[in-house]
Amino acid sequence: MGWVARSIASGHGFSSPFFPSTGPTALMPPLFPYMLACVFRVFGVYTATAAFVVLSLDSLLSALTCIPIRMSLLELVGERRAQLASWLWAIYPFAIYFSAVHVWDYALTSFLFASSFCFAQRIHLQDRPLAWCGLGLLCGLTVLSNPSVLSTFPFLFLLALLKVRRADGRWLRCGVVFLLSMGLVVTPWIIRNYLVMHAASPVRDGFWLEFWAGNAGDTSTSNPSWAHPATNPAEMKLFEKEGEAAYLAHKRSVALANVGRHPISFAVVSCRRAIRFWTGFWSFRSAYLYSELLDVPNVFFCTGVTFLMLRGIFRWWKEDRRDLLPYLFLLIVFPIPYYLTHSSMDYRQPIEPQIIVLVAIGIFGFKDWMALAGTPEVTASRQHQAEPVVAYTFNRKSL
Length: 399
Hints:
The chain is globular. The two termini are 44 Å apart. The C terminus is likely disordered. By secondary structure, it is mainly alpha-helical. It is 68% helix and 0% strand.
């Protein structure tokens, strides 16, 4: 991210993800590098001030993610539990760590995707073209921040259209407006990659490098550092010699050949990656733990989060399966590329706000959380101030 932003800020365009200059690239999605380049132009390239500013922006975006988290839950489970989910995000260690330490797109993508997810949950209440245009623009920006979320949008989009159709709304017009506005944001970058990189790489083209790194035969870690040009001089020379497009095509053929020769090993390692994605566990070998000192406490923490998430899913499933469906689809579809390549906690960040929503349900459930304190005064107070239950019926006229 930093090298590409440096190249942009220096007037050399979107290029050189490695040092020295390696030419135009599509390894990174464009939104965060351009934001970082703006910081570099104002506060200097790789200066301490620039670092402070960009990490402050990341922290602000992480804090603002509380808003779509609250809005996602407000009408589903009530004000109190929506506030509690927001507070859980505010103190969530990963939300703090990845926004305040790493100069990457984590906080930006989490905020944009949480906003898109919240908007998609509520958009069926509107059949105005402007609202659907806004959703399309927001989803397009999210894809340009991190295309890993793209696999989840078709389901969210179709589910919203189905709700509009059931309410006798103009679902076809809404769908066309959404697709056109999203395409308006994403298409220019797709055209740029095709013209500049001479390859069909819609947003970024690094998948086959990551696939090869995770399936090159080295399972000492989930993502061996020697497999990347940034940390292996031999790979860096090969990258410079072949160029990005040819280098990635070569890695694709080698990786698929390895999987074809060892399909059982690939299946086993993919299962290990799936376990790591949800528990943080990869290995308890002493050599591995020596280089990953925090893995053991991280395993307990991540496993606990996953347990509470599953408990939240179970509770929500019994309460209202329809409102749970977007979350279930998200948890099933989003991690698949990481099961196939390599997985770690930072790759979960785009969907971490939705995980925290389910954790909040797992902890507090759907009952009045203050009544759980057991004090007669608190219980009586909450019963007196209980929010009225409002049933909504939507038809074409109300829309």
